[in-house]
Amino acid sequence: MKKDIHPNYIDCTVKCSCGNTFQTRSTKPELKIDICNTCHPFFTGQQKFIDTGGRVQRFADRFGSAKEAVAAREAAKKAERAAELEAIEAKKKAEREAKAAEKAARAASFAAKAEKEARKAAAAEAIEDEGISLDATDLDQEVTGSEPVAVSDASAPEADAAPAAEAAEEAAE
Fold first, then answer.
1. Which of 40, 41, 113, 135 is deepest in the core (most CB within 10 A)?
2. Each residue of 37-49: pLDDT tens digit?
């Protein structure tokens, strides 16, 4: 061993927080410890709450609000998820309403077409009852209420065209 590089190894008195003292050897003359073999739960068999210097209280002060922070974070996540679900539901509802509006518009156009066809059929029936025949364009003009241009049937006299137009107008009304 080299000389003058090692500390002195002397007798030491160990004092525990429970009041137990015993002698051992160390580089220091006195040691103060928190727990020893007479008060440690492993050796005593008793569960003992050991709080030296308020360590538990300091821990609770420092990290005790962690429960509150975790609860607040979880509540924020829950609120965010609820907002996402609400947005998704609102989007689905808007899509359903748009689809229903589109369906209603198609139904209205179909109803208008059906009504126009019904008026055209009624006008054609009225004209057939009078014995005058018109082509499809003349019927469209009569059903829509515009003036007919000319009678397409060359065999029908012009005198019969005027009463046919009046009959078609009456049927349209």
1. 40
2. 888 877 777 766 6
Cβ atoms of residues 128 and 155 within 8 Å: no
Contact predicate 38/44, CB 8 Å: yes
Question: DSSP letter string over 21-87?
Answer: EEEEEESSSEEEES--TTT-HHHH-S-----STTHHHHHHHHHTTHHHHHHHHHHHHHHHHHHHHHH
One-letter amino acid identity for 2?
K
Q: What is the pTM of this model?
A: 0.34
Strands 21-26 and 10-16 turn out to be antiparallel
Higher pLDDT, 127 or 96: 96
**For the chain, which residues make up each domain, given as ranges?**
10-52, 66-172
Per-residue model confidence (pLDDT) at position 123: 87
Looking up tokens 């179909």 gives: 110
Structure tokens belonging to residue 83: 């907002």
Alpha-carbon separation of residue 85 from 57, 73, 77, 93, 144 (angstroms): 42, 18, 12, 12, 51
